[in-house]
Structure formats: C-alpha cells, structure tokens
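step: validate -> pass
step: tokenize input -> pass
step: predict -> running
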Amino acid sequence: MSEALLTVEGLRKRFGGFVALSDVELQIAVGERVGLIGPNGSGKTTLVNCLCGTLRHDSGKIVFRGVELSGFSAHRRTRLGLARSFQLPRPFPTMTLAENVLIPCLYAGGEKRTRAAFRSSQRCEELLDMVGLLDKADRRPGELTQIELRKLELARAMASEPTLMIADEVMAGLSHQEVDEILTLLMKVNARGVSIVMIEHIMRAVLAFSQRLIVLVAGRKIADGDPKHVIGQPDVVAAYLGS
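step: predict -> pass
step: emit ->
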C-alpha cells in the first residue's frame, strides 16, 4: 500500500451498554478507492461519524494527514481535507445551486477560499460543470431530480477541496443507468487525486468502484482486502445471507 492518508487504530464507541464499534483498525492510502460494506446496524454510519467529528469516539486513534484528530471539531476536520456526502441530500432550499456550492467554498475551505471571492465563484462554476449542473446554476434544489440532488451533494462535498471524501450511499434509490452516472462521477473525482471511501449496498457498484473492500459486522472489521476475494469469504457471505 502507498502512503497512508488516514489511519484508524483500536477505535471504540459505545452507546450505553451497546457496543457500536469494537477495536476497529484500518488505513486509507493516498488516491485509493475503498468500499465499506456491512449489514444494517453494522457500525458503518457510527464509524463515519467518528471519523468526521459528528461523534466523539471513546478510545482509539484517528490520524489524518499525520494529525491526530482527537478533540478536533467537524469543521476543523473538513478544513484539513476530510469531507463527506450524506445519504439524504441537505441543500439550502431557498438558495440557488450556485449559492449552495459557494457556501462550503467560502466556509469549509478556510483561508484557501476566503483569499479571493472571485476564485470561489470560479470554483463553484467548475464544480457545477463537473457534475453536469452548470446550466441549472440559478435554479433551486426543489427543481432538481433525485439524481441531480445527489450530484449537487457531491459538488458541495468537493467544494472544500478534500483529499479524502466519504460517499455515504449516494446511489440509494437510483436506477441502473443513474448508478452508472454516479460511478463515472466518483471515478472522475478520484482521478483528480481524491481518495474515496464508498459506503453502499449496491454490490455491483461497490465491486466496480473499489480497489479494496472493508467489511464491518456488529461493530467489528471482519474482512479487508481484494474485493473479489473478500466478497467470497464464508463469514462475509454468512453476514449477508445467514449461516
């Protein structure tokens, strides 16, 4: 594996008596595409929330770009280059698409974005063009289709110029063709040097996208490796289909 961008060591998280994450360890390399899968309730969302700062982990370490993240707020992690998209898009409904992308350009990027308002506006246009929404820049989110909302969500995630992006079920509820559109877009983002962790239940998409596959079950990592090998492991099959 090339240089580690993100390293997680012994991560634990409890909610009362329920253990959501138990000694999770993983690494994400610079420029890597990783699939993160697991049954519902396996701890995927809890892991992402701990990585991004929405939740505080109980023990263990998260090191991103050589910085230990304990005590870092969500916005400080974003400014370091750790971004996420949400399964349910959360645009500002009264703002145009351009304004929706401009907000994270100005805020999440910190000094990089505030040095020049012109550069931020230019960046908005670049991102909307990248996701195929530039011609709708003056429209509002309520006028978009479901796949267009997902594309807007990805543009907003990219606005902070991340080095690692976590794509949380960005294909849920989309048609076969729309899934392929999002796959193409994520590949384009990755080609720009952004490492991506994809959380997804559509196995066709996961296998097409991932260079490596990580499997969580009941808060524990049970597999990590080549997708074709991982998906055939007996404990992974049992987790999805039952013993």
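step: describe -> The mean pLDDT is 92.
step: cleanup -> pass
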